[in-house]
From TrEMBL, chain A:
Pfam families: Chromate_transp. The chain crosses the membrane at residues 6-30, 51-73, 79-97, 109-133, 139-156. This is Chromate transporter. One of its GO terms (cellular component) is plasma membrane. Coiled coil: none annotated. Belongs to the chromate ion transporter (CHR) (TC 2.A.51) family. It comes from Bradyrhizobium nitroreducens. InterPro entries: CHR_Transporter (IPR052518), Chromate_transpt (IPR003370). It is a multi-pass membrane protein.
Automatic annotation (TrEMBL), chain B:
GO terms for cellular component: plasma membrane. It is found in: Cell membrane. The keyword Transmembrane applies. Belongs to the chromate ion transporter (CHR) (TC 2.A.51) family. InterPro entries: CHR_Transporter, Chromate_transpt. The keyword Transcription regulation does not apply. Keywords: Cell membrane, Membrane, Transmembrane, Transmembrane helix. It is a multi-pass membrane protein. This is Chromate transporter. GO terms for molecular function: chromate transmembrane transporter activity.
């Protein structure tokens, strides 16, 4: 239990965080940002928003932004430790709960709890968006690009990958 | 990080019974494939593969299992892989699905992390990533907006207050997540319970 050991810090941080990740990975972004940028200074603001962009752009569950954070802290062992710490505890929990609930029950508690959690996870995701806007959109052009993508993605069913690539092109061209 | 919110629109139910239980390698490969296909959310691909392509579960069973994983904490799709795998093939099946879902993308992500550490300072890459970040945030805003629409339409004051409260506590005041949730979850469950009882009475 050495506080200096970065691997242990990663495991305890993300292991605990996963248990509070109500509403999935996007809802945990503010906490990841708070811990990685503000508390431990593992990454800069810019590195964090880059990590978010890379995680969005690559295949696989979006929760794998923790792989990038772990790598920034402690190389390949850090990447693996962070990933497992974020994914394994809740997977075990899900396994045991699903065995308990193997027969469908008539209880209304699951539905009630789920309804109660919905506004909380939306609030968390809105907070994610705010924090990422603050670290990403430092120019008017950047803000406009974000707003444009938000509108297009809201009104159309276009594949998000195209919007990400378009954003990359705008960036490549030096516009944002 | 688009949320794996509700399962997509209902397809017509497929009445056929299950196919034979898959082998462990089949499970691993199926989850690896859907994971690698899933840019910005794996759920849609998971549903297509499990229900339509392999017929390992019916649409109803899928929804039921998904609801369970959605209400538990943690990355939904990861929970889903373990629950699916273990329902089909026991603990070994859970491990195979979990590994299939996570191993290939984690390797890719690690390679990207190495590349970023080495080349992240290149100006071309910095600019492109900045643009991608802007777009990624825009996508997240669109998702939040979509999820918020039903609450706004119903003008459900309790839900809106809770949503706003969590947003301010986490996004503006930057309070730690566990502290906020330890207050917000009991309050929300309690209030929802009493409101429903009042409606029922």
């Amino acid at each position: 239990m050495n506080a200096e050991n970065p691997i242990w810090a990663l495991i305890s941080t993300f292991g605990l965080m996963s248990l509070f990740a109500v509403g999935g990975a996007a809802a945990a972004v503010p906490e990841m940002h708070r811990i990685a940028v503000e508390v431990h200074h593992w990454m800069t603001d810019k590195q964090f928003s880059d990590a978010y962009a890379i995680a969005q752009l690559s295949p696989g569950p979006n929760v794998l932004i923790v792989t990038l954070i772990g790598y920034a802290v402690a190389g390949i062992p850090g990447a693996l430790a962070a990933t497992l710490a974020m994914c394994l505890p809740t997977a075990l929990l899900a396994y045991y709960v699903s065995r308990l609930l193997n027969r469908p029950s008539q209880s209304r508690w699951p539905g009630l709890i789920q309804a109660a959690l919905v506004p909380l996870s939306i609030g968390l995701m809105a907070a994610s968006a705010l924090i990422l806007v603050q670290s990403t959109d430092r120019t008017i052009a950047a803000l406009l690009l974000t707003a444009m993508v938000a509108v297009i993605a809201s009104v159309s069913r276009i594949n998000p990958l195209w919007l990400l690539l378009a954003g990359g092109l705008f960036g490549f061209a030096g516009i944002v | 990080m688009s949320p794996d919110s509700a399962p997509a629109a209902q397809e017509p139910d497929i009445p056929t019974a299950h196919a034979a239980p898959p082998g462990l390698l089949d499970l691993f490969l199926a989850f690896a494939r859907m994971s690698l296909a899933g840019f910005g959310g794996v759920l849609v691909f998971a549903r297509r593969a499990i229900v339509e392509q392999h017929r390992w579960m019916t649409a109803d069973e899928f929804n039921e299992t998904f609801a369970l994983c959605h209400f538990l904490p943690g990355p939904n799709i990861v929970n889903l892989s373990v629950v699916f795998g273990s329902r089909l093939r026991g603990i070994a099946g859970g491990v195979a699905a979990f590994a299939g879902l996570l191993l290939p993308p984690t390797l890719i992500m690690t390679v990207l992390a190495i590349a970023y550490a080495r080349f992240g300072d290149l100006d071309v890459l910095r600019r492109s990533l900045a643009g991608i970040s802007c777009a990624a945030v825009g996508l997240l805003i669109a998702v939040v907006f979509r999820m918020m629409t039903p609450l706004l339409k119903r003008m459900d004051p309790l839900a809106l207050i809770l949503m706003l409260g969590v947003f301010l506590a986490i996004g503006v005041l930057r309070l730690p997540l566990p502290a906020v949730l330890l207050v917000a979850i009991p309050v929300s469950i309690g209030a929802t319970y009493f409101l429903r009882r009042k409606v029922a009475a």
